[in-house]
């Protein structure tokens, strides 16, 4: 649906009075998050909005996460909290798919087990936007350890149309995606109607950018709304962010790139993603020779994705600095 076809008055009348009938499902996969999981769950249970459910899937944690969850369920005596457990470690994609399979809400939010909803009014504001505008996909902001936001309102403001204070509709999705730093993925970056899903599920055989593979088709499937004042706080977890030993022989172009390459309308997005990804694998932790080997290995993609943009120039400069430092 194009922006100019959006009839706000008729949508408001259609959805008037349906606010509290909207049920929200929060799906939280958990694996070894004993330090964070209680705060994450409590940020959901503390919402002022009443009509929601929390589906937590413990992915066979090796720490005390599952016991914390069971005790939390008993202590809070909250029938909104459903606790599931995978018998063996299946991965985040399997866990999220399992959550989808038992969800009874009208809208779904994925929250990571080490992150928190920053406002007790989060669900109220989601329901407000749905009731006023029949929004099917709502984008929110992630706050990374109080260091930076994604997306930053300043970076995407010219691609938005303001509906009311702190509430926007995206008028240029491609530019919002590129200049917003690909604000896709878990941690409640997106609140979406279950009606959009159809047969779409997370690909369990994809290890990297599996969430972007899931959310990109949803992002382009319907009007996208943006709440600039609603944030998810991303906690710093050294275990999650620590760098594994890099084996350059095993590095391959991600499946997400292949997906973008298969759709001509995603051409600019594909090029932008390639340079972001290439910048991420060229590392100061590698020798200069190994970094050069990576550039040679992906030389075809380098030549295919040359284009002039801020993201390209920033990535290129960052790569050069890594090579000469």
UniProtKB/TrEMBL annotation:
GO MF entry, a single one: transferase activity
Keywords for this protein: Transferase
SUPFAM superfamilies: Nucleotide-diphospho-sugar transferases (SSF53448)
Superkingdom of origin organism: Bacteria
Keyword Transferase: yes
Glycosyltransferase 2-like domain sequence ranges: 25-156
Keyword Transferase: yes
Protein name, per record: Glycosyl transferase family 2
The species this protein was found in: Alkalibacterium olivapovliticus
């Amino acid at each position: 649906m194009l922006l100019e076809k959006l009839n706000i008055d008729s949508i408001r009348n259609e959805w008037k009075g349906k606010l509290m009938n909207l049920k929200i499902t929060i799906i939280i996969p958990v694996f070894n998050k004993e330090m964070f999981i209680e705060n994450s769950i409590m940020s959901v249970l503390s919402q002022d909005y009443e009509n929601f459910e929390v589906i937590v899937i413990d992915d066979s944690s090796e720490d005390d996460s599952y016991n914390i969850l069971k005790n939390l369920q008993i202590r809070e005596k909250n029938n909104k909290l459903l606790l599931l457990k995978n018998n063996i470690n299946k991965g985040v994609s399997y866990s999220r798919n399992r959550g989808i399979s038992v969800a009874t809400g009208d809208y779904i939010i994925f929250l990571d087990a080490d992150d928190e909803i920053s406002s007790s009014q989060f669900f109220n504001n989601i329901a407000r936007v749905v009731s006023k505008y029949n929004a099917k996909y709502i984008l929110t902001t992630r706050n990374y350890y109080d260091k930076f936001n994604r997306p930053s309102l300043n970076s995407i403001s010219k691609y938005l149309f303001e509906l009311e204070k702190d509430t926007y509709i995206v008028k240029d999705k491609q530019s919002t995606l590129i200049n917003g730093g690909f604000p896709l993925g878990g941690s409640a970056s997106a609140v979406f109607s279950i009606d959009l899903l159809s047969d779409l599920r997370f690909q369990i055989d994809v290890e990297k950018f599996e969430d972007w593979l899931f959310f990109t088709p949803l992002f382009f499937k319907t009007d996208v709304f943006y709440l600039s004042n609603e944030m998810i706080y991303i906690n710093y977890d050294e275990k999650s962010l620590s760098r594994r030993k890099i084996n350059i022989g095993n590095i391959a172009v991600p499946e997400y790139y292949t997906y973008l390459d298969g759709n001509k309308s995603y051409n600019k997005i594909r090029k932008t993603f390639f340079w972001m990804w290439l910048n991420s694998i060229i590392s100061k932790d590698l020798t200069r020779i190994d970094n050069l080997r990576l550039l040679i290995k992906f030389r075809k993609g380098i030549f295919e994705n040359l284009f002039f943009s801020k993201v390209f120039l920033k990535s290129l400069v960052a790569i050069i600095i890594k090579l000469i430092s």
